[in-house]
Design goal:
The protein is mostly beta strands and 409 residues long. It is built from 3 helices and 28 strands. The strands form 7 sheets. Strands 11-12-10-9-13-14-18-17 form an 8-stranded mixed sheet, with no helix packed on it. The longest helix is centred in the first third of the chain and has 15 residues. It starts with a helix and ends with a strand. It binds zinc ion (2 copies).
């Protein structure tokens, strides 16, 4: 069984466990069902112990860690602590000491991914043995610490964030040097570390992002500051803010309830982080130990003009997919624009964001794919689309960024 089939089972189990059937079983969603899944956890102050900053741990075993996010109690990790790849080891194991939340992570995606290796990436996704230490009480630094290569932070599922550059120091996300990221915005490097270079739209959060208020937390930087989704308030993304509230060169800003925090910036460099605004915990990345002096300053955009993958898939319609419904999407591609010949026959996989097609048909250069959008889909964020042709052994892959987004109606 490959990894994505395992995660498909897991996602189904999760959806059923929280009492919400997937759209494929129950296409009609009510407002009540949505709010059921968006409420914060009920926590009584006397049941938890403060361990520093916004962090709390339950007094009872098994220990559950909570984060107080703008007054809401969040259990950020319980879902992601499951053993999604069925190797007998939990994806995440969490503990703490006096100054740090300590996270042991397999760094393994618990959402569907593309098959790797494929025509655009020779590497395989491998289970990792990471230990990350997040400062419980992040501290602002006098200067911006430059982001190293390799892991710079951790998504809630334990998969790592990388800076916007590939090894050669070129922008991996956009332009001429864009690399092939699957529709969950990740890919593995040489040692099998699956990582995100931009907003990972497939990571489940305890909150659904309705695009109506401040986005939920999606991960943490290695200085301990939280990273949020793109929205600041109803229909306004944090990257659109001006003046005092504008994001700084690190992609962060402060507010009275969250303190300093970062936001992802879809389609805008640096996409995740531009630098560390806080004092970074050096044990999280060997690059900090190799260099006697960590250099400072935010990363500079070096996008070269070009659109490497955008010309192969020429259109995806409809562009808006209603949550809780099944959709037939029509994907047109230009086989002449592909760098390698596209095989005859149906593709064996079509995926938009985390959602895989249940049925796929092809007529010439048109693909018809049936995709169900579950009731807990994130609203308003553009999702990438990827398609795999050929066998499970190095399929030929194509993609289109920002192909569709999920709407309520
Ligand atoms: Zn990469
Ligand atoms: Zn914010």
């Amino acid at each position: 069984m490959n990894s994505k089939r395992l995660t498909r089972i897991l996602d189904t189990t999760f959806a059923l466990a929280i009492g919400i059937a997937l759209a494929v079983f129950q296409p009609v969603v009510t407002a009540q069902e949505i709010s059921l899944n968006t409420q914060s956890v009920e926590v009584r102050e006397d049941q938890v112990e403060s361990i520093g900053g916004y962090w709390y741990v339950s007094k009872e075993e098994p220990k559950t860690y909570y984060y107080q996010d703008a007054g809401r109690w969040l259990d950020l990790f319980s879902y992601h602590c499951k053993d999604s790849n069925k190797d007998g080891i939990a994806n995440l194991q969490i503990s703490h000491d006096q100054n740090h939340l300590i996270i042991k992570s397999q760094g393994y995606p618990n959402h569907p991914t593309a098959i790797f290796p494929n025509s655009d990436n020779p590497n395989t996704i491998r289970v990792q043995d990471f230990t990350f230490r997040l400062p419980l009480v992040p501290r602002k630094s006098d200067s911006i610490t430059r982001l190293p290569m390799g892991p710079i932070g951790m998504s809630l599922n334990g998969v790592v964030f990388f800076n916007p550059f590939e090894m050669e120091g070129r922008n991996a996300v956009a332009g001429y040097d864009e690399v092939w990221l699957d529709s969950c915005c990740g890919h593995p490097q040489q040692t099998g570390v699956y990582h995100y270079h931009k907003y990972p739209t497939c990571v489940k959060s305890p909150f659904i992002d309705q695009g109506k208020s401040h986005s939920p937390i999606i991960g943490f930087a290695f200085d301990g500051y939280p990273l949020y989704g793109p929205y600041e308030s109803d229909t306004t993304m944090a990257m659109e803010l001006q003046g005092d509230q504008a994001l700084d060169a690190c992609n962060g800003h402060s507010d009275p309830v969250r303190g300093y925090h970062y936001h992802v910036t879809p389609n805008r460099f640096p996409y995740i982080l531009g630098g560390y605004a806080g004092v970074v915990e050096p044990s999280n990345n060997r690059a900090f130990q190799r260099r006697a002096l960590v250099s400072s300053g935010a990363l500079q955009d070096n996008t070269q003009p070009g659109d490497k993958y955008g010309k192969i898939i020429t259109s995806v319609r409809p562009g808006n997919l209603v949550r809780g419904k099944s959709h037939q999407i029509r994907i047109e591609f230009d086989s002449n624009a592909a760098r390698r010949p596209i095989p005859e026959g149906n593709p064996n996989w079509v995926q938009v964001g985390p959602y895989e097609a249940q049925s796929i048909q092809r007529e010439g250069n048109t693909i018809l794919a049936k995709i169900s959008i579950p009731n807990d889909a994130t609203i308003g964020v553009w999702l990438d689309c990827h398609i795999e042709f050929g066998s499970e052994n190095r399929p030929l892959v194509i993609k289109r960024n920002d192909a569709v987004r999920v709407t309520i109606d």
